[in-house]
Each structure stands twice: as C-alpha cells, then as structure tokens.
Design brief:
CATH architecture of one domain: 2-Layer Sandwich
Keywords: Coiled coil, Membrane, Transmembrane, Transmembrane helix
CATH class of one domain: Alpha Beta
Radius of gyration: 53 Å
Number of strands: 4
Shape: rod-shaped
Strand content: 15-25%
Largest sheet: 4 strands, antiparallel
Protein name: PilN domain-containing protein
InterPro entries: Extracell_DNA_Util/SecSys_Comp, PilN
C-alpha cells in the first residue's frame, strides 16, 4: 500500500526552520549581549584600575612635593647654620689678631715716644701720640714699614710741644693693618 502524506510538511518544515532561526538569532543576541557586557565590564575595570593608579600617583606626588619642600627647608637651614658657623669661625680666628696687633704696636714703639689715642676704622689705625723728637716719629714710621702687621704709615700732623708735656711734640699718624701670611706658606 502506498503511503501518501497529505500533511502540509513543507509548511511545518518551514515553521520548524523559522523557529530554529529565531532561537539561533535569540541565542546569538544573548551571546552578543553577554560578550558586550563582558567587554564593557573589562573596559570599566581597566578604567577604574587606571583611575586608582592615577590617584595613587597623585598622592605619591603630593607626598614627594612635601618631602621636596622639607628638603629645601632643611637645605636652607643647613646653609644658615653653615653661614653662622663661618661667622663664628671667622670671629674665633680673628680673636687673637687684635692681641697681636697691640703686641706689634708695642714692639714698634721706640723709646721717647708714647701713644695717647688709638682709633681703628676698617683696616686703618689712627694714632695720636707724643714724641721727644721728630727723629723718634721717623723711627716709628720705619718700624711700621718693616712690620708684618702694618703698612703704609702716613704722618698727617706734628704739633710743637705744649705746656703740659715740655719737650714733647704731638703727632697724628695713620697706618694700615694687614694680616701677615702664616709661616711656611708662599704666594
């Protein structure tokens, strides 16, 4: 016996294929939406990670700026302390100089002559004194020339004897103070 299929199999097959097509499109849309979600999540995660790195870098930069400022303050304080130390060392180094200057003034003083006033301005010493004769003043000037501590003596005034100190002449002399080089050093 022959079988005849009178059912509309083509429409059923077409409907079945259309259902499969819709399911596949729906599945592909779901997969595409899932992939898009994963991609967006990954991009958002990377952006958030980069933003956290940027925030960390900004925080680190602020800390470094603070440290740089502290270092600059410390350097400034160090420079100030070094300047103070230098001033103290200069003062301590110059402390014995005045003693040596006075000692040299005594050594250069010839007999028959004495000082009445001494005034130091800068590196110039102004001397007012009394001398028995002009030869004694000349002797004083020669000794200042030969001295390691003084140079360029300049006699500005010689007044004849007054009534208080009979036989003495008053003189005004200026001499430049110099610092001799330490022994053993050459220019």
């Amino acid at each position: 016996m022959t079988r005849i299929n009178l059912r509309p199999w083509r429409e059923e097959l077409r409907a079945e294929k259309q259902k499969q097509f819709v399911v596949m499109i729906f599945g592909a849309a779901i997969i595409a939406a899932g992939l898009a979600f994963l991609w967006v999540s990954d991009v958002d995660g990377r952006i958030a990670h980069q933003q956290s790195r940027n925030a960390y870098i900004e925080t680190a930069m602020k800390q470094l700026d603070k440290q740089i400022k502290e270092i600059e303050d410390l350097k400034r304080k160090r420079d100030e302390l070094l300047a103070r130390m230098q001033v103290i060392q200069d003062l301590q180094g110059k402390r014995p100089v005045i003693v040596r200057v006075f000692d040299e003034m005594v050594r250069t003083l010839p007999d028959g002559l004495f000082y009445t006033e001494l005034e130091k301005t800068g590196d110039t010493v102004e001397i007012v004194g009394m001398a028995e004769s002009n030869g004694r003043i000349s002797s004083l000037m020669r000794r200042f020339e030969e001295s390691d501590w003084f140079a360029d003596p300049s006699l500005s005034n010689v007044l004849e004897a007054d009534s208080k100190k009979a036989g003495y002449s008053q003189f005004n002399l200026s001499v430049k103070q110099k610092t001799p080089e330490p022994e053993g050093e050459e220019k």
